[in-house]
Amino acid sequence: MAKMGIRKRLLIQNLSIITLSILLFLGILISGIYHYYYSGTAEILKNHAENSAQFSKRYMELSPYTIRDQVQDIQTNFSLPQAETQVISTDGKMLSSSEGFISHGKLDFPDIQDAFRKGEGTWMGTNPETDEHVLAVSVPLESDGKTVALLRFVSSLEPLDDNFKTILATLIGIGLSILLMVFVISTFFSRMITDPVVELTSASQKLAKGDLEARMTGTYKDEFHTLSQSFNDMGQELLKTEKLKNEFISSVSHELRTPLTSIKGWGETLLTGDMKDEEEMKTGLHIITNETDRLIAMVEELLDFSRYAKGTFEISPHPFPFHRLVQEVVLQLDKKRLAKEMDIVLENGEPIKLEADEHRIRQVILNLLDNAIKYSAPGSTITIRYHRDHGNLVFEVEDEGVGIEKNHLQQVLTLFYKENEKSEGVGLGLAISKQIIELHGGQLYVRSEKNVGTVAGFTLPLNE
Questions:
Q1: Is residue 181 part of a domain?
Q2: Where are the transmembrane segments (predicted)?
Q3: pLDDT in tens, 171-211
């Protein structure tokens, strides 16, 4: 069985609620009109009948004539223009009628029976002789405390029925018109509500099938505008992530190919024995060793990325002298610095004891200092500074390099970021460094100005 769409379901729900409301309102209104017309007419006849009976009682007490002698006077004095006036004997036979037609049989209508038993009777039904819809009210005529006859008023309800039917038809017509109008308006509003949902569903399905360029193109307002914008932003981010992933794979392949090609070339040279002298052999072995170290470092970085992605990145804090670690890292990169004839200046190198994962903090400082050397011009100066600040360690590396564009600063700490495709590395270093610092409860930051330089640093809490 096919599922009902949200648009149809919403339309049916709205129409059901409004239809029930209209039916309830019409029911109450029709009931009120019915009561007003029919009960009002019955009340008029009843009041006239009671007043007539009271007047007749006093009249008959003063008159020496019997009820049969006075029926014509009663009929003349108490008749109503819109109703037939009847006088009924105590045995149920009609003594007189303002219509001139006298039924000779016994009348056994409910109002007559109630009038004899209860002192008053009202009946609404169909007159079997005329087939008319009538309203009858009967009251007793008394003389000397005894019921001597009944005074009965019979009014035709046909004109009232016609008026009521006209009003009923009008109300039903108005109700149907309102329902039609509600249907049109509900359809319009349900489309307003469901169109963005339908478009979102379609775009989501395309996105799920791999179409990362699927977007919501409709113009919406209120929350739907936010939803549309969020979906499109998500699609843009997925597209960007896919692009970064492809660039990452390409970059890793390139970064692996370069050292492997170098190792393979020198390995083949060593195997063939085509060496001019021992110095050339040492050069080849030195290159193989350096490229192997480079591969190991790259594999370690990829393993860190795997832990980062799985959320299994862990640290093992222990106390160690931070100032000594900084000096070791500077010494570790000394050859790279000298190759570019650069100076490294250490400011405020006071002894500080830090409780952290020494290996991971070394990795962060190496990354920051290596980036500074890599992106600085030969002969420039790199400044390293660290100090205490309100219970925190503040560490910074400042270079005089090419700097970073302002619109790239927010991305520089994300995975796979590379300023351009020609940049070295695979774009993991700073993102992993940020994760390490945050696991220690600190913060890594980068400030930069294009063609002026960059300051990269971090803060860590000191447990002193």
A1: no
A2: 12-37, 167-189
A3: 889 888 988 888 888 777 777 777 777 788 888 888 888 88
Is 234 a member of any domain?
no
Residue 180 domain-assigned?
no
**Same-domain status, 368 and 426:** yes
**Separation between Cα atoms, residue 321 and residue 67, nearest integer Å:** 132
138 and 88 housed in the same domain: yes
Is 220 among the domain residues? no
Each residue of 352-380: pLDDT tens digit? 899 999 988 998 998 899 889 988 889 99
C-alpha span between 94 and 71 (Å, rounded): 10
Domain that holds residue 123: 6-163
* Same domain flag for 277 and 334: no
User: pTM higher than 0.70 for the full model?
Assistant: no
